[in-house]
Design brief:
The chain is of the alpha/beta class and 260 residues long. 42% of the residues lie in helices and 17% in strands. An 8-stranded parallel beta sheet has the order 1-2-3-4-5-6-7-8. Bound molecules: nickel (II) ion.
C-alpha cells in the first residue's frame, strides 16, 4: 500500500534533531512520495535542501499569508529563482489569506497582493498552487476567479466549509484533508462527501495537527494513514482503495504522473 502525504513541513525547527530518522521511518511506513512545503524564503530553501537528499521528497515554495509581515517584494524574486532552477519544485505554496490571525484591513490588502503575485508566478512557471485559507472564504474564491491559476492547485488542510469546498471544486481545485477530520469533535462527513473522489487528497501538515489517536503530539507522515482511514470510512470503501485514489490524485495535481 502506497501513501502520498501532500503537505508537510520537515523544514520546521521541530525536526532538526531527528530529521533523517523520521524521514526514513516515513518511507518505511509506506509513504512513497511526500511534499515538503515552504512558507517563506528560508523554509523554502530548506525544503529544497531536504528534497535534494531524498528522491521521494518534492517541494512547494512560497510566502504564506502569516509570513508576509517579515517579507518583501525581493523575497518573491528569490522564490521565483528557486522555483525556476530546481526541478523538484512542483508548486508555488503555501500562499493565500489568513483573516483568523490578521484582523487589520490594510495588512489583509497586502496578503491579497502577495497572493495574486504568487498566482502570477505559478502561471509564469506553469505550476499549480497550494492554498492556505482561513476565515477568508469569499476573498479567496474571488481572487481565484479573477486571477485564475491555469494549473489549479490544492486547498490545503481545507476548512470544513461546504460553500468553500463547492466553489473550490467548481474552479477545478483539489481538496486536501488533514488530521482535523479525525478529531472527536469534528463532523467532516458532509464536507468530505462534497468533494468528488478524484479531487481528494490527504496530508499531515507535520509537525502540526496529528490525527487521532496521536492528537497533541508532533505529527509526521507515518500518521497520514489515519486521515486515509477516516476518509475510507466516510466513503465506505477499503483503506487500500482510498490510499490508491489519493496517491493518484496527488500525482496528477503535482504533475508527477510521467515520473512514476
Ligand atoms: Ni502548512
Amino acid at each position: 500500500m502506497e501513501l502520498f502525504d501532500s503537505h508537510s513541513h520537515y523544514n520546521d525547527e521541530k525536526f532538526k534533531d531527528d530529521l533523517d530518522e523520521i524521514i526514513k521511518s516515513t518511507y518505511d511506513s509506506g509513504v512513497t512520495t511526500l511534499m515538503c512545503i515552504g512558507y517563506n524564503v528560508e523554509s523554502s530553501k530548506k525544503a529544497i535542501e531536504i528534497s535534494n537528499k531524498y528522491d521521494f521528497i518534492y517541494v512547494a515554495c512560497g510566502i504564506s499569508p502569516n509570513d508576509i509581515e517579515q517579507a518583501s517584494l525581493d523575497d518573491l524574486k528569490e522564490i521565483e529563482e528557486m522555483a525556476r532552477n530546481n526541478s523538484k519544485v512542483l508548486a508555488i505554496g503555501e500562499i493565500g489569506l489568513d483573516y483568523y490571525w490578521e484582523k487589520d484591513e490594510e495588512k489583509r490588502k497586502i496578503q491579497k497582493e502577495f497572493f495574486k503575485k504568487q498566482i502570477e508566478l505559478a502561471n509564469d512557471l506553469d505550476l499549480p498552487i497550494v492554498i492556505h485559507t482561513r476565515d477568508a472564504y469569499i476573498d479567496t474564491i474571488n481572487i481565484l476567479k479573477e486571477f485564475p491559476c491555469k494549473n489549479t492547485g490544492i486547498f490545503h488542510c481545507c476548512p470544513l466549509n461546504n460553500e468553500l469546498i463547492k466553489d473550490g471544486v467548481k474552479l477545478g481545485y483539489y481538496i486536501s484533508f488533514s488530521g482535523v477530520i479525525t478529531f472527536k469533535n469534528s463532523k467532516p462527513e458532509q464536507a468530505v462527501l462534497n468533494v468528488p473522489i478524484d479531487k481528494i487528497l490527504i496530508e499531515t501538515d507535520s509537525p502540526y495537527l496529528a490525527p487521532e489517536p496521536y492528537r497533541g503530539s508532533r505529527n509526521d507522515s507515518t500518521k497520514v494513514i489515519e486521515v486515509a482511514r477516516k476518509l475510507s470510512e466516510i466513503h465506505k470503501i477499503s483503506l487500500e482503495e482510498m490510499c490508491e485514489i489519493t496517491c493518484n490524485n496527488a500525482r496528477k495535481v503535482y504533475k508527477l504522473t510521467k515520473d512514476i
